[in-house]
Amino acid sequence: MRHRHISDIVISATLMLMLFSGPAAAQNVGEVPDIQSPGHNSEIPSRVSRIDVTWGIPEGDPYGYFVLFNTNPGHTFGGLNPDGEHVTRRSFTSPDFAAFQPDDVAYYFHIAAADGKGDIGLTVTAGPYRIDVVPPSDVGVTAPEVTSVRTVTLTLKAEGASEVHISNVAHGEGGRWKNLTGETEWELTPGRGEKTVYVRFSDLAGNTAGTSVIITFIAGDADGDLSLSLRDAVPVLQVLAGMETADISPDADVNGNGRIGTEEAVYILKEISGTDSE
Question: Phi first, then psi: what are they for 172, rounded to 5°?
C-alpha cells in the first residue's frame, strides 16, 4: 500500500510539473511589437478578403510565433496545445474569408512569441480588420411613371449602402457618387418618350448593386396636366401671335432650344390630331 501511495504522489507531481512548465508560463520572450497590415484599415471595411500582417522582433530569444485569426478580440494563447499555427517567419496571411461571405465582419489577429523550449509569451491582438464582400441588398428606386417636368423626385432604398450614383446614361457612367439619402431630385434628358434612370448603390467597402427605373416624359404639356390637348396648343399659339397668355411650363419645350415656339405648336397639334409628329 505504501508503494502505491508513493507512486500516486510521483504521478501527481509529474503532472503538476508538466502543467506549470507549459507554454503559458514563458518569461524568455517579450510581447510582439509593430504589428502592421498595410492593406487593411481598422476603421474602414475592405473587399480584400485575405489579411496580410507583418511584425517586429520581440525582446528575448524568440524561436517562432503562434498566430491566429478569428472574430474573438479576447483570445489568448495558452495551455499545452495552443490554438493557431506556429511560424518562424515574421509575416502571415489569413485564410480567404470570402468563403464565409462576411458582411462587414470584424476579424482579429492574435500573436505570441515562443522560445526554443516552446514556452509562449503574452498574446498581442491587432484589429479589428473589417471584411465585407456582400453588396447592398433590397435595392430599389421609385419615381413617377409619367411626367411632363424634367426634374423628378427619386425615392431610393438600399440595405447596407452609403453612397449612390445616378445617371441617364448607364450604371456607373455619366454621373457622380454622392451620399445616399432617402429622396433626391433628378433631371431627365431632353426629348420625349421613355427615359431610363440608372441607379447604383455602394457600401463603405465599395461593393455595388444596381437597379433602374423607366419614366415616360410627355413633351409639349404646356399646362402640366400629363396629357396633350387644345388647352396646350392654345397658349402656345398665343405666344406665337404675341398675345398675353397664362404661364406655360418651360418643360413643354420639345426640341430643347430653351424656347416655346413653332416647333412646340406643330408637335402638339400633330399629337392631338393623331398625325405622325416625326
Answer: 80, 5
CATH for 2-131, among 1.20.120.610, 2.60.40.10, 2.40.37.20, 3.40.50.2300?
2.60.40.10
What digits encode the pLDDT tens for the residues 49-86? 999 999 999 998 899 999 999 999 999 998 767 889 99
Whole-angstrom Cα distance, residue 67 to residue 109? 7
Nearest residue to 202 (alpha-carbon basis) of 9, 45, 88: 45
Residue with cell 475592405: 46
> What is the rounded CA–CA span in Å between residue 139 and residue 155?
11
CA–CA gap between residue 166 and residue 186 (Å, rounded) = 8
pLDDT of residue 159: 96
The alpha carbon of 31 is separated from its chain's Cα centroid by a whole number of angstroms, namely 35
Q: Do residues 156 and 211 make contact, with C-beta atoms less than 8 angstroms apart?
A: no
Q: Which residue has the cell 503532472?
A: 15
